[in-house]
Automatic annotation (TrEMBL):
It comes from Pipra filicauda. Converts trimethyllysine (TML) into hydroxytrimethyllysine (HTML). SUPFAM superfamilies: Clavaminate synthase-like. This is trimethyllysine dioxygenase. Residues 165-258, 272-329 form the TauD/TfdA-like domain. Pathway: Amine and polyamine biosynthesis; carnitine biosynthesis. It comes from the Eukaryota. Its EC number is 1.14.11.8. Pfam families: GBBH-like_N, TauD. It catalyses: N(6),N(6),N(6)-trimethyl-L-lysine + 2-oxoglutarate + O2 = (3S)-3-hydroxy-N(6),N(6),N(6)-trimethyl-L-lysine + succinate + CO2. Its cofactor is Fe(2+); L-ascorbate. Residues 72-137 form the Gamma-butyrobetaine hydroxylase-like N-terminal domain. One of its GO terms (biological process) is carnitine biosynthetic process.
Length: 346
């Protein structure tokens, strides 16, 4: 059964269910047991999949399977009907679904199924025909997606980061070329920090830099914050004191992470559990303060640092003298969106 529907090169449709899997024919047929017997060892058979179903309804529940290239995709008829990309089901201009998913019969089965080298054709009981490009299916099916991992992240400490010799991206290349921006974002996704150098050291130029990647997120600190050690905001950041490792804005609805400075009174943990909280806090703090886990960077005028607050903490040593620093918060969705537009898997 499988062999007869193997496409000229690499696609193989395996249904193991009541609906037809014919070469373009519109009639249904039953071939009990055929699926398990004809499939090779390398392909998981429909009958194996059915082992997970109650014996009373094994055949009706079997997932249709499609092999393309090296990917075995286990599909579902309702899913296949729901994701139909025909003009009446899907508006390709707006990328929006026109089909009312709730109107799909949850027991729907196609009258006919056919697969050629590049396309899967399904004819539904009402005559509607759905076509799927096999490339599209591989990209969008569950099994295909599983193979497509997120952009890799490197778990690093100071030594690993130094050895990697991650280059800073030049400001001009960052602002004027997609390659420069992509290189920067790739580093940012890999390590959770990335640098741009040769930035004109002004608030305005830093703002232009930020806007190259994302929408700037306004907060109670303003759009661009600009701080010196004048305590103007009533926050430790605006002093010369050391700042322990932390992430920012933990008190927002979309918080960035851990911050001992802004931690509220612990009043949601009962007395007999609160000591465990402190033990956990101590263990975490010990890890965070290990010298090998810290990268010390002297920020000079013109060097901009981007930090992924979901991954990397930051802090500073106490200092003397006059220091100016400006920056802003970016919206995470837009940073990741920019990365995706450049072809990165963010
Ligand atoms: Fe901070």
């Amino acid at each position: 059964m499988c062999e007869s529907f193997r496409a000229a090169r690499s696609a193989c449709w395996e249904q193991g269910a009541a609906a037809a899997a014919g070469g373009g024919g519109g009639r249904s047929r039953e071939e009990p047991g055929a699926a398990a017997e004809t499939l090779g060892n390398s392909i998981r058979s429909a009958s194996q999949a059915s082992l997970h179903h109650p014996p009373a309804q094994p055949r009706a529940r079997r997932a249709p399977e499609l092999t393309y290239g090296n990917t075995l995709m286990r599909l579902d008829f309702v899913w296949l009907r729901d994701h139909c990309r025909s003009a009446s089901c899907y508006n390709a201009k707006t990328n929006q679904r026109s089909l009312d998913t709730a109107s799909v019969d949850l027991a729907i089965r196609p009258q006919a199924v056919r697969v050629d080298e590049s396309t899967l054709f399904l004819t539904w009981p009402d005559g509607h025909v759905t076509r799927y490009g096999l490339e599209w299916l591989v990209k969008n099916s569950y099994e295909g997606q599983k193979k497509q991992v997120m952009h890799p992240r490197i778990l690093w400490n100071a030594e690993i980061y130094r050895q990697a010799q991650v280059p800073s991206v030049d400001c001009r290349s960052f602002l004027e070329t997609d390659e420069g921006l992509k290189e920067f974002l790739q580093n940012f996704l890999l390590y959770g920090i990335a640098f741009v150098e040769n930035v004109a050291p002004t608030k305005e130029d830093t703002e232009i830099l930020a806007e190259r990647i994302s929408i700037i997120r306004e907060t109670i600190y303003g759009r661009m914050w600009y701080f010196t050690s004048d305590f103007s905001r009533g926050d430790t950041a605006y002093t010369k004191l050391a700042l322990d490792r932390h992430t920012d804005t933990t008190y927002f609805q979309e918080p960035c992470g851990y911050n001992n400075y802004d931690r509220a009174v612990i009043n949601t943990v009962p007395h007999d559990v609160v000591r465990r909280w402190y033990h956990a806090h101590r263990a975490l703090t010990t890890e965070l303060r290990r010298p090998e886990n810290e990268l010390w960077v002297k920020l000079k005028p013109g060097k901009a640092l981007f930090v992924d607050n979901w991954r990397v903490l930051h802090g500073r040593e106490a200092f003397t003298g006059y220091r100016q620093l400006c920056g802003c918060y970016l919206t995470r969705d837009d940073v990741l969106n920019t990365a995706r537009l450049l072809g990165l898997q963010a």
